[in-house]
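Q: What residues go here?
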C-alpha cells in the first residue's frame, strides 16, 4: 500500500509537518492544504486514496468539506478535532467520515488508523467480481458484461472500466485516469482518455449519446454511476 496518496488538510503548520513526516516515513505520498478551498483543489488534482481533514478550517467547516467530498466520492476520510465532545464525533461520522481522531494525537496511532482503513479499501478493490446493476467486471477473467452479454474491450479500455468500477461514484480527472494506466499505456496523452471513453461507451452503453454507466463530469473528467448515490 506504500506510495498511495494521502491528502492532509489542517491550518496548523505544526500539525501538517508532523503528519507529513510520519506518513512519508511509512512510504506514503503526502499532499497538504491549509483550508477548504485548497482541500477541494488538491483533491481534484491528486485523487488521494485517503483524506485527513481538520474540523476547524479558516474558510469553511471541515464537516462541510467532508460532506461535499462524500457526495461525489467514496474516498476514506479521517477527521481531526481539538474537541473530544461525543456530539462532534457523531457529527463527523454522520457527515461521511470513516474515523475521528482527537488532538493532541499520537502520530503512530494516526498512521495505524490510516493503514487499517486503507487495508479495508484495498480488500474491497481486490474483489474478483464487481457488480454495479447490470454491469459486471470479472477481474480474474478480465471480462466486462452488460445484462449478461460480454463486451469486447481492449486492454486499456478494460483497465479504465476496472479503475472506475473499483470506485463507483468517484469523479476522476483525465490526468488521474491516465496515471492509473501507467503500467498499461505509459506516456499517454490526457486527450486520449476522451477517445477511450468514447470507444467504451460505443461498446457497453445502450445509447452512447445518452450514457447511463460512465458519466461525464463537466470540465473535469468521468465517473462510473454509483447506484446507491446516483
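A:
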Amino acid at each position: 500500500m506504500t506510495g498511495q496518496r494521502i491528502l492532509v488538510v489542517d491550518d496548523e503548520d505544526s500539525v501538517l509537518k508532523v503528519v507529513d513526516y510520519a506518513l512519508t516515513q511509512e512510504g506514503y505520498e503526502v499532499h497538504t492544504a491549509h483550508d477548504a478551498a485548497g482541500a477541494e483543489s488538491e483533491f481534484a488534482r491528486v485523487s488521494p486514496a485517503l483524506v485527513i481533514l481538520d474540523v476547524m478550517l479558516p474558510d469553511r467547516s471541515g464537516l462541510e468539506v467532508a460532506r461535499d467530498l462524500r457526495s461525489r466520492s467514496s474516498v476514506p476520510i479521517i477527521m481531526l478535532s481539538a474537541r473530544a465532545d461525543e456530539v462532534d464525533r457523531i457529527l463527523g461520522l454522520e457527515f461521511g467520515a470513516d474515523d475521528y481522531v482527537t488532538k493532541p494525537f499520537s502520530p503512530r496511532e494516526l498512521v495505524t488508523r490510516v493503514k487499517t482503513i486503507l487495508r479495508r479499501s484495498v480488500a474491497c478493490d481486490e474483489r474478483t467480481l464487481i457488480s454495479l446493476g447490470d454491469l459486471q467486471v470479472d477481474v480474474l477473467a478480465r471480462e466486462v458484461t452488460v445484462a449478461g452479454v460480454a463486451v469486447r474491450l481492449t486492454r486499456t479500455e478494460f483497465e479504465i472500466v476496472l479503475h472506475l468500477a473499483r470506485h463507483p461514484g468517484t469523479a476522476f480527472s483525465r490526468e488521474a485516469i491516465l496515471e492509473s494506466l501507467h503500467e498499461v499505456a505509459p506516456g499517454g496523452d490526457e486527450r486520449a482518455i476522451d477517445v477511450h471513453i468514447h470507444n467504451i461507451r460505443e461498446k457497453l452503453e445502450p445509447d452512447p449519446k445518452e450514457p447511463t454507466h460512465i458519466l461525464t463530469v463537466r470540465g473535469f473528467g468521468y465517473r462510473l454511476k454509483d447506484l446507491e448515490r446516483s
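A: Context that may help when evaluating the design: The chain has two domains: 5-125, 129-224. The mean pLDDT is 85.
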